[in-house]
Structure formats: structure tokens, C-alpha cells
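Input for the complex:
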Amino acid sequence: MSVVAALLDGWTVLLVCAGIGFFVAGTTGMLRFPDAATRLHALTKADNLGVGLVVLGLLPQVARPAEGFKLLVIWALVLLASAVSSQLVARVATDGPPIEEDRNGRTAPAASGTPLDRSGSVGAGAQP
Amino acid sequence: MIPALERAVELAIGAMLVGLALWSVLVRPRFASIVGFVVFGLLLMLAWMRLGAPDVAMTEGAIGSGLAGFLLLSAAARLRCSEIRRARIGAGEPQRARDRSPRRSSIVALGVGCAAVAAALAAAVAALPHPAPSLAPAALERLPELGIGNPVSGVLIGFRALDTLVEKIVLVVALVGVWGLAAEASWRRAPSVDPSPEIEPIRFLARALPPVGIVLAIYLLWRGATEPGGAFPAGAILAAMAVLVLAAGLGRLPPTAARSLRLAICAGPLVFLGVGGLGMGVARGFLDYPAGFEVLSIKLIEVLLTGSVAVVLLLLVAGPPEEAASANGMRRPEPPL
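Predicted:
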């Protein structure tokens, strides 16, 4: 194995591991943070930096430039999707959902109170 | 990858699939259950990829997870609206509201039925001889006669073209069934996708994403001849882009009475039927493509099928035409898609 190939492999291992680190941190944050805004913060870091670092790490491994371009496009699409979906979740979290389902899946008018404090009201309404 | 590691990844995917399936059935809030179902579909994509079936994975992601997920979410939103309306109207008589939810006995019967089907399927798979009987070598051997390189496309549009043709007709029949649900007053009106309540981010996405989606759909259609892809995933992506535009309130569907719309629905299956019927005259039989024109016939059928699949899937998601109850000045009238 030439020196260049070894260096490129090292780059891949380093960046993919860093990306995985962001995913682990983001997942931990989403499970542990107290409210919707901070959980979104954790989640978007995993999407933006985690996927980005994994993509950058994989770039030296592609066989053709077109494959590398596809990886970058995937990153850009993930960025777009994560930006839009976190906006949507954040808006629902701050405005409060118009109606909420209780634990039996029946709907009831939303409870009053500051929506951001209601843990579990955003994303998965299934926190036990 | 090391075989042991591969096995571990596969086992993890399988375990997560079973766990997610159970969770999405057992969890009570509707929204959570649907999210579980969508994630289940995405994980199923990974499972199909591990099994070496990227064509199935793409269709599962686009249809099973994406469009079906959207359909379930909008159904849940409608149920919620009608439940609220009923709660407001019938506040004094909760008895009637309760009567409309399914009985425990029917839920149990449904569960037992589903479990029986699953058990029968598992038994059938377990009873398969090893190695399973396969027509793959025979199909691969004759593939060059069709002039295309992707064996999945070859089977779908060549060797088993009859199945594909009937499948496309079934899609049209399904749409007829959905339209049949329209009320008398709204028949011939335009179906619509309920606009998203949080409109700005969706509107941004609906402006940014469709160019990428359209290029991707054309790419999938084009390379379907040699690599995984083809008419169905391409049509599904086009339909998804159109749903996005409609949910953002940036466009409108033409009324169901519009001749152009009906032509777009039928164009794919009709041309498929026509080229297939031509085979009875100039080739060896129905759906046998004329010698020398295989690739041209297949391309023509695939392009028109993509359009029809996209339109039909979009209309299936939009549902039957309805009286525009909540139509307000918010939506800018724009030319139909």
C-alpha cells in the first residue's frame, strides 16, 4: 500500500469516526435534553455535521468522480430536509399543536401552558 | 466487510424491524404509530439493500414509506378534525362518539387474522426448498434478446409484461374507486391536497426540491434499462414532488372532468396495450415486441408509464374531489400542474 493510499484511508477513518461521534452525541442529546428546542439543536447537529463528516470521509474512497458528486448531493438534500423539518417541529413546539392526543390516542383540545415545557409533545408523542 | 460483522448488522436490522413493527401496532397515539410505520419502511429499505434488491428497496421507500406515510398522516389529520367537530357538536352525548370507535372484539379478530396471515407466510417461506426454485438463470440467458441490461426491468417490461400491464390498469381502477367516493355535489370538481398548516417552510421546500426531484426521476427512468431504477420509482418521485407543491399551496389540480387529466391517467396503460396488441400482428403474440424495435418499444412504454404512474399516485394521495370547504384567499390561484 502506498503512502498516499494509507493517508487517504486514515482520513476516511478519522472523519467517519468523527461523524459517528456527532451521531452518538446527537442521539444522546435527543434522548436526554429537557425540551423541544434543545432536542432539535442536538438532532440538527447529527444531521448537518454527522452526515457531512461521513460524506467527506468517504470521498477519497469513491471509484469515479460522479459517485463523489452523488455523495455531496445526498449531504445537501439531508441538509435541506433537516432544515425544513426542524423548522416545522420548532413552529409546532412554540405555537403548540391545535389539538393533542391523549395516551389512548383520543384527541382532546390542547392543554394551556407554555408549549415548550411539555416534554414529549413534539415528534414522538409516545414517550411512556 | 468481515462476515461476522455483516451478520451482526443484518441481525440488528431484523431485530429493529420486528421491534418497530410491534411498536407501531401497539402504540396508542395515531401520530406516533404512523411515524413508526414510516421508519419501519425506511429500515425495510436497508433490509432489501442487504438482500441485494435495490429496485425493491427504492419502491418500498417511495411508495411504502413515503406516499403511504403521507396518506396515513393526512387520514389521521382528518380523523382528528372530525373527532373535534363531533366533540364540539355532541358534547352532551359522549355515548354516540364512543359508539363509532371499533369494538374490542373486531380489533381482536383483526389482530388474530393478521397474525394468522403472518404465520402462514412465515411457514411458506420456511418450507421453501433450499436452494429455492428460480427462473433467474433462464431470464438472464434470454435478457440480451430484449436489448436492455437490467434483469429486473427485463422481467417487468419484457418477460412478465402482462403482470406489469395489469398492475398499471389496477392503479387506474383504484383511482376510479377513490373518485367514486366523491359526493354528488363535488363530482367533476378538482381534487386537492390539504395545505400544510405551517406553510412557509413547506413552501420553501416546494420551491427548492422539485428541480432536483425531476432530474432524479429522469435519471432513474433513463438508467432503468441498465441499472436499478425504471418507471415506477421515477413516477413515485414525480408524484412526491407534485404532492409537495400542492401541500405548499403553490399549485392546483385540474378538475376530474378535465380531458387532459384523464388522458394523462390512461396514456401509459393505453400505449402499453397498443404496443402489446401490435405484437399480435408483427411479432409472435400479445406483448411480444417487434424484432429490432424492442428497445424503442420499451422506452416508449416506460416514458408514458412514468407519467401515468406519477399522475395516478398523485391523484390517489389527493383523494376524491371535495367541496372546497376551507378554501380561502390564502391560496394563490395558479395554473394547474
